[in-house]
Design goal:
The protein is an alpha+beta fold. The chain has a single domain (about 1-115), classed as Endonuclease, Chain A. Helix content is about 45%, strand content about 25%. It is built from 6 helices and 6 strands. It has helices at about 1-10, 45, 50-65, 75-80, 80-90, 100-105, and strands at about 15-20, 25-30, 35-40, 70-75, 110, 110-115. The protein has a 4-stranded mixed beta sheet with strand order 1-2-3-4, sandwiched between helices. Strands 5-6 form a two-stranded antiparallel ribbon.
Protein backbone atom coordinates (compact mmCIF):
# COMPACT_ATOMS: atom_id res chain seq x y z
CA UNK A 1 0.00 0.00 0.00
CA UNK A 2 2.87 2.40 0.72
CA UNK A 3 4.13 1.85 -2.81
CA UNK A 4 0.78 2.95 -4.21
CA UNK A 5 0.70 5.96 -1.87
CA UNK A 6 4.22 6.88 -3.02
CA UNK A 7 3.04 6.82 -6.64
CA UNK A 8 0.05 9.05 -5.81
CA UNK A 9 2.32 11.59 -4.07
CA UNK A 10 4.89 11.48 -6.88
CA UNK A 11 2.28 11.83 -9.62
CA UNK A 12 0.87 14.77 -7.63
CA UNK A 13 4.30 16.40 -7.98
CA UNK A 14 4.69 16.72 -4.21
CA UNK A 15 8.14 16.79 -2.65
CA UNK A 16 8.51 14.20 0.09
CA UNK A 17 10.84 11.82 1.87
CA UNK A 18 10.04 8.22 2.75
CA UNK A 19 10.56 6.28 5.96
CA UNK A 20 11.77 9.29 7.90
CA UNK A 21 13.04 8.56 11.40
CA UNK A 22 11.55 11.11 13.80
CA UNK A 23 12.84 11.17 17.40
CA UNK A 24 10.25 10.07 20.00
CA UNK A 25 7.97 8.89 17.18
CA UNK A 26 9.77 6.34 15.04
CA UNK A 27 9.52 6.02 11.29
CA UNK A 28 6.96 8.04 9.40
CA UNK A 29 5.83 6.63 6.07
CA UNK A 30 6.19 9.97 4.27
CA UNK A 31 7.08 13.53 5.23
CA UNK A 32 6.22 16.34 2.83
CA UNK A 33 8.73 19.15 2.39
CA UNK A 34 6.63 21.37 4.69
CA UNK A 35 6.84 18.81 7.52
CA UNK A 36 3.40 17.25 7.10
CA UNK A 37 3.55 13.58 8.05
CA UNK A 38 1.58 11.14 5.91
CA UNK A 39 0.82 7.67 7.20
CA UNK A 40 -0.66 4.94 5.01
CA UNK A 41 -2.36 2.63 7.50
CA UNK A 42 -3.38 -0.82 6.39
CA UNK A 43 -5.78 -2.59 8.74
CA UNK A 44 -3.48 -5.59 9.00
CA UNK A 45 -0.78 -3.64 10.81
CA UNK A 46 -3.00 -1.15 12.63
CA UNK A 47 -5.90 -3.25 13.90
CA UNK A 48 -4.65 -4.33 17.32
CA UNK A 49 -5.29 -2.39 20.50
CA UNK A 50 -1.53 -1.81 20.90
CA UNK A 51 -1.08 -0.40 17.40
CA UNK A 52 -4.19 1.77 17.78
CA UNK A 53 -2.80 3.21 21.04
CA UNK A 54 0.66 3.68 19.51
CA UNK A 55 -0.77 5.50 16.47
CA UNK A 56 -2.61 7.94 18.77
CA UNK A 57 0.55 8.51 20.83
CA UNK A 58 2.59 9.17 17.70
CA UNK A 59 -0.03 11.65 16.44
CA UNK A 60 0.02 13.53 19.76
CA UNK A 61 3.81 13.74 19.81
CA UNK A 62 3.91 14.95 16.21
CA UNK A 63 1.22 17.54 16.87
CA UNK A 64 3.07 18.80 19.93
CA UNK A 65 6.12 19.15 17.70
CA UNK A 66 4.00 21.33 15.39
CA UNK A 67 3.68 18.79 12.59
CA UNK A 68 0.43 18.06 10.78
CA UNK A 69 -0.48 14.38 10.41
CA UNK A 70 -2.60 12.88 7.64
CA UNK A 71 -3.58 9.22 7.96
CA UNK A 72 -4.94 7.41 4.93
CA UNK A 73 -6.53 3.98 5.04
CA UNK A 74 -6.11 1.15 2.56
CA UNK A 75 -9.50 2.07 1.10
CA UNK A 76 -8.42 5.72 0.68
CA UNK A 77 -5.21 4.79 -1.10
CA UNK A 78 -6.52 1.95 -3.22
CA UNK A 79 -10.05 3.17 -4.02
CA UNK A 80 -9.88 6.96 -3.62
CA UNK A 81 -6.48 8.05 -4.92
CA UNK A 82 -7.72 11.52 -5.88
CA UNK A 83 -8.84 12.11 -2.29
CA UNK A 84 -5.32 11.23 -1.12
CA UNK A 85 -3.81 13.48 -3.78
CA UNK A 86 -6.08 16.45 -3.04
CA UNK A 87 -5.68 16.28 0.73
CA UNK A 88 -1.91 15.79 0.59
CA UNK A 89 -1.60 18.67 -1.88
CA UNK A 90 -3.80 20.90 0.31
CA UNK A 91 -1.61 20.09 3.32
CA UNK A 92 1.42 21.12 1.24
CA UNK A 93 -0.30 24.35 0.18
CA UNK A 94 -0.46 23.18 -3.44
CA UNK A 95 -3.03 22.09 -5.95
CA UNK A 96 -3.00 18.79 -7.77
CA UNK A 97 -1.81 19.01 -11.37
CA UNK A 98 -4.61 19.35 -13.91
CA UNK A 99 -3.63 16.11 -15.60
CA UNK A 100 -3.62 14.05 -12.41
CA UNK A 101 -7.08 12.52 -12.56
CA UNK A 102 -6.63 11.33 -16.14
CA UNK A 103 -3.07 10.21 -15.34
CA UNK A 104 -4.26 8.11 -12.41
CA UNK A 105 -6.91 6.53 -14.65
CA UNK A 106 -4.11 5.55 -17.05
CA UNK A 107 -2.10 3.78 -14.37
CA UNK A 108 -4.93 2.61 -12.12
CA UNK A 109 -7.02 -0.52 -12.22
CA UNK A 110 -9.77 -1.65 -9.81
CA UNK A 111 -7.10 -3.58 -7.88
CA UNK A 112 -4.52 -0.79 -7.73
CA UNK A 113 -1.61 0.14 -9.97
CA UNK A 114 -1.16 -1.35 -13.41
CA UNK A 115 2.27 -2.80 -12.92
CA UNK A 116 3.38 -2.15 -16.52
CA UNK A 117 2.47 1.54 -16.47
CA UNK A 118 5.36 4.01 -16.19
CA UNK A 119 5.03 6.22 -13.13
CA UNK A 120 6.88 9.22 -11.76
CA UNK A 121 9.04 8.36 -8.74
Amino acid sequence: METVCRVILAESRLKFEEQVLIPQVGRADFVLDNGTVIEADGFGFHSSYESFENDRRRDRVLQLMGQRVLRFTWKDVMERPMLVAREAAAAAGQEVPRHLESRLREIWSPTGLRMNAPVAV
